[in-house]
Amino acid sequence: MRQTILVLCCFLFLSNTLQAQKSGTVKGYVSDTINNSTLTQASVSLLRAQDSILVKFTRAKEDGYFELDNIKAGKFILLVSYPKYADFVDQFSVDSTKLIKDYGKINLADKGRILSEIIIKGNRAAMKIKGDTLEFDPKAFKIEPNAKVEDLIKQFPGIQIDKDGKITAQGETVTKVLVDGEEFFGDDPTLVTKNLRADMVDKVQLYDKKSDQAAFTGIDDGQKTKTLNVKLKEDKKNGYFGKVELGGGTDNFYKGQAMFNKFWDKKKLAAYGIFGNTGQVGLGWGDKDKYGQSGYQVTDDGGINFSNNGNDEFDSWDGQFNGEGIPVAQTGGIHFDNKWNNDKESINANYKIGDIKLSGNRNDINQQNLSSSSIYNTSDKSFEKNMTKNKLDLAYEIKIDTTLTLKLNVDGLFKNSNSSEAEMRKGTDEQGNQLNNLKQTTTNDVDDKTFNINTLLTKRLKKKGRTLSLNLSQSSTNSKSDGYLNSRAEFFTPSVISPDSTKVVDQNKVNNINNIAFKSNLIYTEPLSKSLSLILNYGFNISNGKADRKSFNQSANGDYNVLDSIFSNNYELDQTINQLGGIFSYKKNKTVFSFGSKFSGVNFKQYDVYTDSSFKRKFVNYMPQINFQYNFKQREALYLSYNGNTDQPTLEQIQPIRNNQNQLNTILGNPNLDPSFRNDFRGSYYSYKVLSNQYFSVNGSYNFTLNPIISNVVTNDRGESISQFVNLENKATTSYYLNSNFGKTIKAIDMTAGIGLSANKNVNYNYINAKLNQTKNSSYSFNLNLSKYKEKKYNFNANFGPTYNVADASINENSDSNGWGFNGNFWTNIELPFKLEISTDGNYQYNGKTQVIQETFERFIWNASITKKFLKSDNLRVSITGRDLLNQNVGFNRSAFNGNISQSTYTTIQRYFMFSVSWDFSKMGGGETKQN
Fold first, then answer.
1. Listed residue (505, 363, 484, 513) closest to 418, CA to CA
2. How many other CB atoms sit within 10 Å of the CB of residue 15?
3. Which residues lie within the region annotated Disordered (predicted)?
4. What does the alpha-carbon distance between residue 183 and residue 266 come to, in Å, rounded to a whole number?
5. Helix, strand or coil for residue 885?
6. Which of 79, 45, 42, 78 lies closest to 60 in space, CA to CA?
7. How far, in Å, CA of 649 to CA of 644, rounded?
8. Which among 536-545, 633-642, 657-666 has the top mean pLDDT?
9. In a 3-state reduction of DSSP, which class is residue 373?
């Protein structure tokens, strides 16, 4: 009996001991958010989350410390209060895996300060950070009646929009703009920013969009796109809205556009049509970066500038307008998306058709620096181009059950382009003696067809964090072209008037190129603990390409039917890739950390049909990666990453196809090339303070490539070049980029001011006539931004600052092209009585003299308009606009690469005046849309 009682007492003691061990503790410090002083005797209440019943209560000690212990498992609410301060409220849980909740320092905000800043001043949290996403609140910015999303985004800190609608955020171009997380006409951001109304927007998110599979698994596959997501207000998702605009001007300039949108339930229907020749209409269909660049350019391509990179194809224009030439464009499309079956199924479809014509002239001046001398090249070119596109894309997603999802993407593109070009090129030595002369005309007609299908299947398994996903994709492309090349190159001996040798090409070029590729990627995630996961992936890819390029000379009767076997070829390329990778991912509290690597084994075989010979190669790619993210608080975060990658030599570098399109340059293959290894480090930090509307951001990157592949160019005294790619031992090519922005509201003058600093540098190498040349290209800039808004009076924004560019080449001490520049932009809007409005914007660009180019370039492009608003909602507008009022929009470009300095001038759109009428209509949420 005594033994039984003793055992029972021991059991009760152990039970009570274990129960006590499972109780939780909550602790922290209470202080003032402004001066960081302790708030003694602050009340700390613990409430049960289920019914808000008080569980425990205490007050902060003299040092602000508080502690509540012996808390049983469950969900609770912590309430911290102090007179004249805003309450702190947070919900948390206590269980066997988390018995201690340490809040650290809890900063309470002064109510009086909050009221003066937020209620009286109308100040809101303009920006906050959620994970790796920056989120902007439109209510913190000023929105004019009938303003578009573009007008709203212009006010966001750290984001710029140029006159063509190009969006730059954190130094990178934004290539996608989504609506409620969905594609809206696909890959033309301006269709959203220039047409959707700003007062419909609930929030705007900025992030690097990952692939669907990477977003599901958390494993970085390197596919990232700088993206803006425009989330609409719930009450703006029912009704219709749109815009109609027509305009005609001097010198036969015109424009027109119409867009209609209807939202109902969970459906969106949109259609648009745009036409014009003002250069403000682009197709933007994602073949390449839509936006061109202007001004002083310093490139880091690391290679000699060869025509078409050795491919025996004509200038493959992608249909984009980058400011060079005079365009005539017309495009239209229709969009539909819907969700149904309790949001388990969704569809997103887009169809677009467009046509663009482009014509113009271009003049180039180039200084080609050799080891002991220089060659001066001039070129005059005229061109006519035309392209017609049809594109259809469809996305369908179904949630088969709560754990299984299938997503299907299909798209197809049909494109026809034709072009003609005439060029005259001349090369001279330093004394002005003629070295070579080239006259060339080309015509080309191309038909392209592309089809892609992608399937993603994701499965969440029973254990939390355990997932399986499979991505399958197949793509096929076909390109057929038929064109003519007529070229005559003459070469001179110095001081001799007549050429001593001549090369003539008169050929018909017929190409037929096909590519089929299949890719698969299987990813499995396994949680090793509550914070640590292992992610494994296996991928298998196969591709097959066929390139049949034929060159025909003229026969005696004038027909092009004599095959030139030297400049004709028929290649087949088969490639197989097996990839295996493993990533460890750690997520706990404010920290996210991952590290691992991928390995891929590649086999490819190139078969020459004409010679019945093959070229085979096997290699292994190594791709380590490390990512770190720390969220200090909601509006402050740090990101760091490292990625390594093995870069294999391209087929063009190993075995280039014979090409006679550029008779001044010949490329030789190098089958002995070894791979290089690229190391890429990136980092960024963001911080935002609500009360002072103060933001600070810095982001940058540094990369270096070991055993890089560089060009080895031998140029004779008549300007003929022969090049080959080689590996550079014991040296690395390097580059870095740094961008920083700081800004805040200056209350004394009610103006927002910001400064921006940016720097980038590239160090590359190449051999010129057996001598190693080191090229240093750098650019440094300082930018000051000022903005001020007075409701119903004016809106002003200006940014300006100096730049300094460096382009040094060790090959020739007289080849430096270092110089100062200055850039400035402004835009302002002034409201006058009688519903009149004046708008004006300008861009100033200055490029100073350099050692090579002994002339300055300066232009100021000034635009202005006066608008009369009609109707009660001011949505009918009549405008008179003047573009380039000072007639200074001269097409201009400077560039430097591998010791070569170039300057270009080209045809572009100059001054015109236009009369236009626009009408915005809207009926959302059951009534006329009210402006903020």
1. 484
2. 10
3. 419-441
4. 14
5. coil
6. 42
7. 16
8. 536-545
9. coil
For residues 473-483, average pLDDT: 94
CA separation for the pair 758, 461 (Å, rounded): 47
292 has a pLDDT exceeding 50: no
Sheet order of strands, 201-210 included: 127-130, 133-136, 201-210, 224-232, 176-179
DSSP string, 524-546: EEEESSSSEEEEEEEEEEEEEEE
Alpha helices by DSSP H, listed for 167-232, are: 190-193, 212-217
> Which residue's structure tokens are 């400064």?
755
Q: What is the pLDDT of residue 18?
A: 43
pLDDT digits (tens, 9 = 90+) for 365-382: 888 777 777 888 889 999
Tell me how far apart the terminal alpha carbons of the chain are, to the nearest angstrom: 83
Q: Which two tokens stand for residue 842?
A: 């300008």
The stretch 290-296 carries a mean pLDDT of: 27
Rounded Cα gap, residues 898 and 724, in angstroms: 15
Q: pLDDT, tens digit, for every residue of 6-55?
A: 444 544 444 444 444 467 889 998 888 666 678 888 899 988 887 677 88
d(CA 29, CA 105): 5
Task: Look at residue 310 and tell me whether its pLDDT is greater than 60.
Answer: no
Record the pTM: 0.73
- In the three-class reduction of DSSP (H, G, I as helix; E, B as strand; rest coil), residue 600 is classed as strand
Tell me the C-alpha distance between 266 and 882, whole Å: 42
Q: Across-strand partners of 854?
A: none
CA separation for the pair 360, 863 (Å, rounded): 23
What are the φ and ψ backbone dihedral angles of 492, each rounded to 5 degrees?
-120, 150
Per-residue pLDDT, averaged over 475-486, amounts to 94
Distance CA 600, CA 89 (A): 50
Q: What are phi and psi of 71, to 5 degrees?
A: -95, 125
Q: Which amino acid is at 652?
A: E
pLDDT of residue 295: 25
Higher-pLDDT residue of 144, 305: 144
- The number of CA neighbours under 13 Å toward the Cβ of 537 is 26
- Quick check: 199 and 143 in contact, CB under 8 A? yes
- What counts of helices (H) and strands (E) characterise the chain? 6, 48
List the structure tokens of 451: 């089809």
Token pair in block for residue 422: 């005439």
d(CA 803, CA 296): 10
295, 377, 430, 718 from 490: Cα distances, Å: 33, 14, 19, 10
pLDDT at 309 exceeding the cut of 70: no
Q: What residues contact residue 254 under an 8 Å CB cut-off, 6+ apart?
A: 247, 248, 275, 276, 277, 278, 914
pLDDT band at 103 (very low <50, low <70, confident <90, very high): confident
On the question of pLDDT at 257 being above 60, the answer is yes
Stretch (H or E) spanning 9 = helix 2-21
| Residue 299 near residue 403, CB atoms below 8 Å | no
CA–CA distance from 373 to each of 25, 429, 547, 664 (Å)?
Answer: 79, 8, 40, 18
Cβ within 8 Å of residue 582, ≥6 positions away: 534, 535, 536, 537, 596, 597
Q: What angle do CA 760, 733, 822 make, to 5 degrees?
A: 20
Tokens 């001593």: give the residue: 500
Rounded to the nearest 5°, which phi and psi values hold at 42?
Answer: -60, 135
User: pLDDT tens across 776-808, in order?
Assistant: 889 999 999 888 878 778 888 899 999 998 888
- Which region, left, alpha or beta, applies to residue 848 given φ > 0 means left and ψ of -120 to 50 means alpha? beta
